[in-house]
Structure to design on (595 residues):
């Protein structure tokens, strides 16, 4: 029997919803699991994850962990994993998870399977699938060490829902500090202020490409607002400054799989497709009938976006 | 400032959809080798940090590139030397002898010999998309890290102010040397890297620099040494991650083209039930 430790991501005093994907992994693996909530204010936030069927919710609450600094978090994660006899440590492959997980793996002499898309627990051992070559192939892999660290792709592990019950909350001490932590200073958090849902959680995403130019927000905001959608962008749109970098969808941006994805003025480069082709329904609006995006789109509209998008907004308003 | 840049060659990422799978094995035959784009960005960043942007011929620091791979990967190293790196190291290895952990432990050994101020790597190699070597080597060395750097300011050659690109925004960190920084896409924008040698008014061309023909010739004479993996990691050569098989992703079913916006809305409602 494995013993899984799920690492929660704490933000603004709350457990981020992305954590529910790591919990989903633990449930799919079908072995007992506990959840570690660490950070300043972890104790208060712990109650948010006591109804997911975890054996325990372990808390390390300390002002030293006020900011997401890997050198500060990794020692306590590794210490809890060791003292609790956990042999699988799992975190969601958000920028937080990707930053800290390898440091934890190194401390635990563990192999690290990153950004996995599925887990199988057949034959008493875990095997993982993970996308490679921008999702153009999937690898089946195993971690060969006694302890394993895994990060899971949020778009592939549907967030776990609470299952009831009340996992006991247990305190754990802050681990001895790493000297490396003394050489990194947290300067500032630059948080994008947006009323829109997060790309990782949105049911609908309206993404725009280079074609939108300076009219990126002007054209897309009415549509996104009407649909309660998150806004995404291609790399070209971000690089050109039409959209902020954190909106980038793709192999090297956010990987998303909403119910409905609009690709507007996006050509459909491999790197973009890697981040959105898991979406349930894909709509493409592009004036080039041969744009590669049409190869993955369920519904393609060959049109000038500057007339088609406002028309779409009008049509949707008319029908609602 | 002395900077070590790990550089990997990958099968042409713009043609990754031509990757084939044969009996569970991955085939990239027919695809050209290219430097991992993020590593090209790391080399460009290293060059910007060790020069005056107004006079890029004089290197005001040292940039060492290192790759893990067979003999042919020296082409990739020579490419980096031609753009301005000073010397190169090739650790002789084939892909089946490597995973992120072995590479990180070997890089640790190299860093202990070379004593760089900075290891500057790509945030991910776009073939395996593993996103871990930088963080692993930082931990093995006991150094601080700043991952996914979108901009870097070098104030004093003792530390860097790094703006990291993270989900939902940015995080700014100051890391003191020696440190590990992994770079993101926006690091090669015209004003993303500020070195203390370059005037604030200087603007770089967007992207990475190209090598002049003369420089390509000159790069053939720059030092390139070969190292043995076993000399760096000792007997501990076991891989921590084992790849059993590969498969192609399930194909998406072909879609349709709609003629009008009204038809699109209709289909989304009645057929896809997405609205
Ligand atoms: C290392 C690396 C990582 C990368 N990672 C990512 C990533 O994560 N995400 C990503 O998106 N890209 C990524 N890219 C970039 C990718 O290769 C493409 O360059 C990028 O996706 C192109 O963006 P685009 O489709 O907006 O622009 P373009 O390719 O320029 O396409 C613009 C499209 O708009 C259409 N168009 C123009 N005018 C109109 C109009 N009036 N109405 C309708 N349509 C119009 C055109 O027909 C065209 O298809 C990466 C590249 C590299 C090298
Ligand atoms: N075989 C290799 N040779 C040199 N550098 C590598 C190699 N593999 C990975 N790296 C470095 O580690 C970074 C992250 O790679 P990865 O963790 O494999 O996604 C890359 O961008 C390179 O800088």
């Amino acid at each position: 029997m494995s013993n899984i430790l799920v690492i929660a991501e704490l933000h603004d005093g709350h457990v981020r919803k992305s954590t529910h994907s790591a919990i989903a992994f633990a449930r799919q693996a079908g072995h007992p699991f506990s959840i570690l909530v660490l950070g300043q204010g972890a104790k208060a936030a712990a109650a948010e994850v006591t109804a997911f069927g975890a054996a325990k919710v372990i808390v390390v609450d300390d002002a030293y962990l006020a900011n997401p600094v890997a050198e500060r978090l990794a020692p306590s994660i590794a210490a809890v994993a060791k003292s609790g006899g956990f042999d699988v440590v799992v975190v969601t492959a958000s920028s937080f998870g990707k930053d800290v997980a390898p440091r934890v793996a190194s401390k635990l002499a563990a192999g690290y399977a990153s950004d996995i898309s599925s887990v199988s627990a057949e034959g008493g051992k875990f095997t993982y699938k993970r996308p490679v070559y921008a999702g153009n192939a999937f690898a089946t892999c195993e971690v060969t060490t006694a302890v394993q660290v895994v990060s899971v792709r949020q778009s592939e592990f549907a967030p776990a829902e609470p299952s009831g019950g009340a996992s006991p909350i247990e305190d754990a001490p802050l681990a001895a500090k790493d000297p490396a932590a003394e050489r990194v200073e947290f300067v500032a958090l630059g948080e994008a202020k947006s009323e829109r849902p997060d790309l990782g959680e949105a049911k609908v995403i309206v993404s725009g490409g280079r074609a939108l130019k300076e009219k990126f927000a002007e054209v897309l905001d009415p549509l996104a607002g009407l649909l309660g959608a998150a806004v995404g962008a291609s790399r070209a749109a971000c690089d050109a400054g039409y959209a902020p970098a954190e909106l980038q969808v793709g192999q090297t941006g956010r990987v998303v799989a909403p119910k409905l994805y609009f690709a507007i003025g996006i050509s459909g480069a491999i790197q973009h497709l890697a981040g959105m082709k898991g979406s349930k329904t894909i709509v493409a609006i592009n004036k080039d009938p041969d744009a590669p995006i049409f190869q993955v789109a369920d519904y393609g509209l060959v049109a000038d976006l500057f007339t088609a998008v406002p028309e779409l907004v009008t049509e949707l308003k008319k029908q609602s | 400032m002395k900077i070590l840049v790990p550089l990997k060659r990958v099968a042409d990422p713009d043609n990754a959809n031509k990757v084939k799978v044969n009996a569970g094995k991955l085939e990239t035959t027919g695809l050209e080798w290219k430097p991992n784009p993020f590593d090209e960005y790391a080399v460009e960043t290293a060059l910007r940090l060790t020069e005056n942007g107004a006079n890029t011929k004089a290197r005001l620091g040292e940039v060492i590139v290192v790759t893990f791979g067979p003999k042919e990967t020296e082409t990739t190293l020579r490419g980096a030397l031609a753009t301005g790196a000073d010397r190169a190291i090739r650790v002789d290895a084939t892909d089946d002898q490597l995973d992120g952990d072995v590479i990180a432990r070997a890089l640790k050994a190299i860093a202990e010999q070379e004593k760089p101020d900075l290891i500057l790597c790509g945030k991910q190699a776009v073939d395996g998309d593993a996103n871990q070597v930088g963080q692993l080597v930082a931990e093995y060395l006991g150094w601080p890290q700043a991952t996914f750097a979108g901009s870097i300011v070098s104030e004093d050659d003792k530390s860097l102010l790094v703006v990291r690109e993270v989900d939902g925004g940015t995080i700014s960190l100051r890391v003191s040397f020696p440190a590990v920084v992994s770079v993101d896409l926006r690091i090669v924008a015209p004003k993303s890297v500020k070195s203390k040698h370059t005037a604030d008014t200087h603007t770089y061309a967007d992207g990475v620099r190209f090598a002049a023909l003369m420089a390509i010739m000159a790069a053939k004479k720059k030092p390139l040494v070969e190292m043995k993996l076993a000399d760096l990691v000792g007997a501990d050569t076991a891989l921590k991650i084992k790849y059993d098989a590969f498969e192609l992703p399930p194909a998406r079913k072909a879609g349709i083209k709609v003629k009008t916006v009204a038809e699109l809305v209709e289909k989304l409602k009645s057929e896809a039930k997405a609205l």
In short: The mean pLDDT of chain B is 96. Chain B touches chain A through 85 residues (CB under 8 Å). The pocket of adenosine monophosphate (ligand 2) is lined by residues B 6-8, 36, 38-39, 42, 67-69, 98, 100, 103, 121-122, 124-125, 128, 130-134 (CB under 6 Å).
